[in-house]
Write a structure and sequence with these properties.
Elements: H1 2-10, E1 18-22, E2 25-29, H2 41-47, H3 54-60, H4 65-74, E3 79-85, E4 91-97, H5 99-113, H6 132-137, E5 144-149, H7 159-167, H8 175-185, H9 198-205, H10 207-219, E6 223-227, E7 230-235, E8 244-246, E9 254-256, H11 258-266, E10 277-280, E11 286-287, E12 290-291, E13 297-298, H12 300-315, H13 317-329, H14 344-361, H15 366-378, H16 384-387, E14 396-401, H17 407-420, E15 425-426, H18 428-431, H19 438-448, E16 449-457, H20 464-477, E17 485-490, H21 493-499, E18 509-510, H22 515-527
Parallel strand pairs: 14-15, 14-16, 16-17, 17-18
Antiparallel strand pairs: 1-2, 3-4, 5-7, 5-10, 6-7, 8-9, 11-12, 12-13
């Protein structure tokens, strides 16, 4: 009866093994694990609160309780463990859950995330536009930037802390339910590096840490952020010695002060002292790998490294891949099976670098566009984010600069007429698609066009975009013997030239419903 009331209370279907009749006897078969819950997200998130028993957890995960307990406690090996060498040469231990555990963790993860209230200072593993860029943004243009690293971040969160998370607010679970979920989310008594639940649980375990460090930041008028195990403080004034000081024995090295280290230790974590850095504004200040002295930027060394990788690709892709594997994974020639190399590992590394640059600087960033252009010359089928730039780099014969008011009467008819004569034309309404970067498309097309027809009208002289394009072309003509700008006057010539005196010495054409005549003249120019 109590069991019945328990399931009525939670309104969760009870899951049992399938009953199979073989002759006069019965046998039981566990159902195949489903990667998704049948409950809708909102209902599942609500019912996840207040689970009491292992039965409640099993029914929440839509699995027979016997099957759940067998997976958690009777299976001999639920994880594949392997080592990955870091760039520093040290080893990172990866514990990858096997399919049954992985499926259950993936079911639980969104339910945990739904009840984690993200603090303003936290930027790692939280989504909603937060990441390394938003983290770095908080520390730009500061006099001092202090970086700390937490030692063995995931492994510092043990089974007892995870169980405590489920017992306490907001989950308010009973001890049996919390114990089963803690068992599901830990390995060898700690959060594994490789489980999908570890990031959100590490953030929940860091709640007291964030509160203590935010309090310190308020007390000393500092900016504080945390991205996983990367802690950053920044200040417009000198840091107090209670937070950081210089090592008198080792020149230039920074030591975490007593008050700051105590706050971290009291929160159940330890400082990795080898990674403590205090950076002055006259040094290169970096936060989560990004330079923040004046704004958020990619380190120039990273740009140069990516350019060098593309050059190595151009020379010999397979040799470049071989060298990359040796350096990245700290292996020797004898460890590499050359017959299996096809360049894909190296290409993915280059694409990853380009994706990172785009994420930080945007796709209208000139160095990024130049690097993508180099890749397109080497690879016919790159990822979509690079492939879509292909048209951007093609040379146009004519770029038509216009105000929206002149589009239907002058710009579009002129474009059609030129195209009918075999002229390759760039006009924004046809060349810029949904999702494209307006700035990147226009800036590149301006540079790649032989001529720019600027439609000068009463509308265009009062619009910022046509004037920006016009000024960009005029600037490009300085010191050049080639004339690129072809002004097309629509309206009162004298009045319009007064508005743009730089055009006074330009030979121009006047629009008088003479599209075909103008088109013929452009075609003649291109033929000479």
């Amino acid at each position: 009866m109590l069991k019945y009331l328990n399931f009525k209370l939670f309104d969760i279907k009870e899951f049992e093994p399938d009953r199979l009749k073989v002759g006069d006897s019965l046998s039981w078969k566990n159902p195949k694990l489903s990667p998704t819950l049948t409950l809708d997200g909102a209902s599942a998130e609500k019912k996840f609160i207040g689970l009491k028993s292992d039965n409640d957890v099993a029914n929440m995960l839509e699995i027979p309780v016997g099957q759940l307990l067998h997976i958690l406690y009777d299976s001999k090996q639920n994880y594949d463990t392997f080592s990955v060498k870091k760039k520093s040469g040290k080893v990172r231990l990866i514990e990858s859950p096997k399919p049954p555990i992985k499926i259950l963790q993936n079911k639980v993860r969104p339910l945990i995330e739904a009840h984690y209230k993200v603090k303003k200072a936290v930027h790692g593993f939280v989504g909603n536009g937060k990441g390394i860029v938003s983290n770095a943004e908080q520390h730009k243009k500061k006099k001092y930037v202090l970086n700390l690293d937490l030692q063995d971040f995931f492994h510092s969160v043990n089974f007892g802390r995870v169980r405590g998370i489920f017992i306490n607010t907001p989950f308010n679970m009973g001890l049996p339910a919390a114990t089963v979920l803690a068992q599901l989310c830990t390995h060898n008594g700690r959060l594994p590096q490789g489980a999908s639940t570890s990031p959100v649980l590490s953030n929940l375990a860091s709640t007291s840490l964030d509160k203590r460090l935010m309090k310190i930041a308020r007390e000393f008028n500092l900016t504080y952020t945390r991205y996983a195990d990367d802690i950053t403080f920044s200040s417009k004034e000198t840091f107090p010695v209670s937070l950081v000081k210089r090592d008198e024995l080792e020149t230039g090295k920074s030591i975490v002060g007593y008050a700051l280290e105590k706050a971290i230790n009291d929160s159940g974590f330890k400082v990795n002292h080898s990674k403590t850095r205090l950076q002055h504004r006259y040094q290169r200040q970096e936060v989560t790998g990004l330079v923040v002295n004046e704004g958020v930027n990619v380190n120039r060394r990273f740009i140069r490294k990516t350019r060098a990788m593309i050059n190595e690709w151009r020379k010999d892709l397979l040799e470049a891949e071989k060298r990359f594997i040796k350096l990245r994974y700290h292996v020797s020639d004898s460890d590499i099976d050359i017959s299996k190399l096809d360049g894909s590992i190296y290409k993915r590394a280059v694409y990853g670098n380009l994706s990172f640059i785009k994420m930080v600087k945007g796709e209208d960033h000139s160095p990024y566009l130049t690097l993508c252009k180099s890749v397109l010359a080497l690879e016919s089928n790159p990822p979509e984010f690079i492939k879509k730039l292909k048209d951007l780099f093609e040379m146009f014969d004519v770029f038509i600069c216009h105000a929206s008011e002149d589009k239907s009467e002058v710009a579009v008819p002129l474009s059609h007429s030129l195209k009918n004569q075999g002229v390759k034309v760039f006009i924004d309404c046809f060349e810029i698609g949904w999702g494209d970067s307006l700035v990147a498309k226009i800036n590149t097309a301006l540079k790649k066009s032989k001529y720019v027809i600027a439609i000068i009208s009463e509308s265009s002289v009062n619009k910022s975009w046509p004037m920006k394009e016009l000024n960009a072309v005029l600037s490009s003509e300085i010191g050049s013997v080639h004339t690129k700008l072809l002004p097309l006057i629509v309206g009162d010539h004298d009045m319009l030239i007064k508005e743009i005196p730089l055009l006074a010495d330009k030979v121009f054409e006047t629009y008088n419903d003479n599209i075909e005549e103008i088109s013929d003249k452009v075609k003649q120019l291109l033929s000479t």
